[in-house]
Amino acid sequence: MENREEKIKVIHRITKSSSACLHGDNKSNGNEVFSNHDHIPIDLTREIIMRLPAKSIVRFRCVSKLWWSITTQPNFINSFAIRQSSIPRQNLLITFVEQDNGKKQVFCMLPIHKNSTSYSDVNNFHIIFPPTKVFCGYYTISVNGLITFRTNTEIIIWNPTMREHITFIKPKSSKHARCFLGYDSTENTYKLLLMACSYRKCEKYQKPEILTLGSQESWRVIENSPAQDPKCMYYCINGILYYNAVISFEEDRDDHSILPSLQIMSFDVRSELFKSIQLPGRANQYQDGLMLEESLISYQRKLAWVCYNSKIIKIWVLKDAEKQVWLENEFVLPLPQRDLPEIAWLHGATSTGEFIYVSGNAPKDISTFYYDPVRETIRSVKGIEYEQFRRCYGSNDNFVSSLSLHAFPDHIENLMSLKHIMCSPSV
């Protein structure tokens, strides 16, 4: 660590000299005068800084005005996020939510590639606390490093890297609406989409509303949107929001009851257009004596529909959204290791294609399991013992037993500050 800090100091000293030369000042603050061959070009300095962890970049902003200027430029922040998205994740962000009221929540970074056989001390992990007074008992995701929360009247966007959050007032008509955060990398634009839930055939459909972050505009109603009842789970992949929704209610021919028709909906963040996608397949309720769960996931930067249990994974990967072309595959977990804990839920996949299982509501430990369908292997990474976690962060003796775990496989570090984003009024 000391060697790394010393290197940073040298880079700063030489960069400072380069900066002085750029401004026509050949004097140095100390007794050292650097020759031309010692000068590090600004572009190279920028590239070196970009390879540092986000935490170090934020800390080193106070080193000099030059470094502050480099690391706060929008182009640098965008390039850093793009680089973060292109490299394999080193850590998995998970959150522990107290199920009873959803008011207590703790985020933790667990290593992905470390094959550990024993539990680590809780103090060795990067623990992050979200903004207070937010309701966390619902499914959410990380979109380009930003995480959303909601209350009945507000939406909170949180950047855990910068320890900043911003609050938006919901439109009065959308108290119980689903809230989706979308990001368009082409225009570097974030948008909040509100979708009313619990639509029924006999009810009047409430049109979606949208807000562009930083535009200083109010919520806008999206016209010509299909009637739909959106579900909580969603993903933002390459500028497109994907989520499950009931978009029509069909009448059963036998008993004339109303049956929901579940489909996948897509929403283009830039054009603000909705499209429906037929589900590629539905699984039988049980297989190998175990119930199959169904879910959307992000699989190697593509949308995927999975049916799974602890012994099998059926997956359909969306290859062409326009033509609705899916690639189907099925994986049987290796026989010697196929018995994952019954409480382990599939939470998506790593950037290298490993399926991520996270143990939830366990009485003893917090662990993650990674299944590689190519090598047909399962590896486990032991994390934190529940008892130690409860002693450090639990509010009472029942905290552990009421925990629910959520994972954020696509989370990246984002250096964008939320301070410049104006909170827009409600409609």
UniProtKB/TrEMBL annotation:
Any Pfam family: F-box
Official protein name in the record: F-box domain
> What organism is this sequence from?
Arabidopsis suecica (Swedish thale-cress)
* Span of domain F-box: 40-79
SMART domains reported for this sequence: FBOX
